[in-house]
Amino acid sequence: MTRFDLTLNVGVDQTALSQGLKLPVKIDFGSVPHLLIAAPSGSGKTYLLTYLLAQLAKKPGRVLLADFKGIDFIELDGCTDYYRHTAVGNALNIAFDTLQERMHNPSPDSPPLFFVVDEWAGFLSLYPKKEQEELKQKMSALLMLGRGVGVFVIMALQRADANYITGRDNFGNALGLGRLSAESVRMMFPDDSDIIQPKSRGHGYLRTDGKALREIVVPQLRDIARAKRTILEKLGG
Ligand SMILES: Nc1ncnc2c1ncn2[C@@H]1O[C@H](COP(=O)(O)OP(=O)(O)OP(=O)(O)O)[C@@H](O)[C@H]1O
Ligand SMILES: [Mg+2]
Question: Which domains are present in the chain?
């Protein structure tokens, strides 16, 4: 058991909101680890990541931000724990090495490590099949074993696709925004695929293992520049 706070707000409950009530929807990585975010281009993945990173920045622990596109978070360039383009692989290796090290020397005092990766599929597509498999295996190990040693993954991609994720069953939380492809729906919401509707930007569904599916809305950020400054400090800027 960890003594660290591992909860994050991912949005507000759409059903409550339609009745005028702002009910935050939280996920607790301590009980249900890792988060997969899938949404077509322009549906709000990077925006949601900014919201999550700003929260992580205020908590203990280390955050590695792996940004394949390297555009939306460009102001973080130069931060120790900001990894863009092919350097996404460096962040993956740090997370994987931390996992292995902690498995050899487990301690309840290890602060959490969050590996946050935007456009994982884009990153993988740079590599030939054999290297992709190695990268996916490392990710799979993080997903399977991370929780026990305080290592967590937050991954965003455009489509949830079996070509990019092998340990998909280990994403305890899956969040889909906008108009999801049929394949994303099948992979992320296998038990609820018949009720998933196309949504607008920033709107979607959250599956948390062991809980009922929830409709959520990602809130508008009051001050993005401030959020980014907080993130910059956290990442060693
Ligand atoms: N919840 C939201 N509330 C208000 N504006 C939002 C919200 N989500 C996204 N936006 C705005 O919509 C635009 C697209 O969002 P974002 O860049 O996060 O999409 P994306 O899914 O990351 O797209 P891509 O796949 O192209 O990277 C941005 O200008 C962002 O500011
Ligand atoms: Mg994006």
Answer: 7-234 (3.40.50.300)
